Amino acid sequence: MNKLLSLLLVMSTSFVFAQATDDNEIKITQTGDTLKLYIDQVGFGNKIGGDDASGGTLSSMSITGTTLEFDLDFTGDQNILFGPVVADSSDYTLNFAGDSNEIDWNIGYIGSADSSNIDFDVTGSSNTFDLDQGYVYSAERLDADLILIGSSNVFDIDWEADDLIWTFDVTGGSNNINTLQNDGAGKIDFTINGDSADVDITQISGTCSPSNASCSSPDGVIVLDVTSDNAIIQLTQKDSTSDS
Q1: pTM for the whole thing?
Q2: Which CA distances in Å does 54 have to 13, 51, 86, 108?
Q3: Is residue 243 part of a domain?
Q4: For the residues 76-81, what does the mean pLDDT come to?
Q5: What is the mean pLDDT of the chain?
Q6: Which positions ≥6 away from 158 have C-beta within 8 Å?
Q7: How far apart are the first and last CA of the chain?
Q8: Phi, psi torsion values for 14, nearest 5 degrees
Q9: What's the total number of domains in the chain?
């Protein structure tokens, strides 16, 4: 019998258990600081935060706070993680083992998201990742690490943050990766081992002029290590204020 677990954390915590007719699902609405959230989901078709926005789900994940600690583990196929997070000084550890999972997650889209540390460990194929940090509000000091073992995965990752370090290690064939670094000084250390990779990396470090002393050292750095046949790799670095 599958279970539906709804968490409502608004300064206090309450749990409501109800029976569902299909998938295991965790829906979260939370406001408050120093939350430590540990979730393990094992099986097929599980959800954290409901469907993506195109599904029209109203009760998605919504988390707001400071000094949060997430440890999310998915084991299985066709699982979903979706929802917005607004948090400063927070750590995120996400481990995924399985195929055809969908992750659509944004941090700081509608509020501050400074001093984030994000660690992803993914083993599987045909997964879809759409990850965003920052957009309109402040997002500074981001350290993001992703280790991927698998094939035919699709990644669309936009980090809009100052003082950004982005380490990406990929093993597997036919992976499609599109990543943007925008808003300030950034470094990407990208390693890929697998054939038929399709990689697009864009770095935008902001406007630069001869009178700007900070331009004496590079604001955007890409370190690329590729072992691949039939790879297509596009690198773009710009002193600009937009990605258009």
Answers
A1: 0.78
A2: 29, 8, 21, 20
A3: no
A4: 87
A5: 79
A6: 131, 132, 133, 179, 180, 182
A7: 49
A8: -140, 150
A9: 1
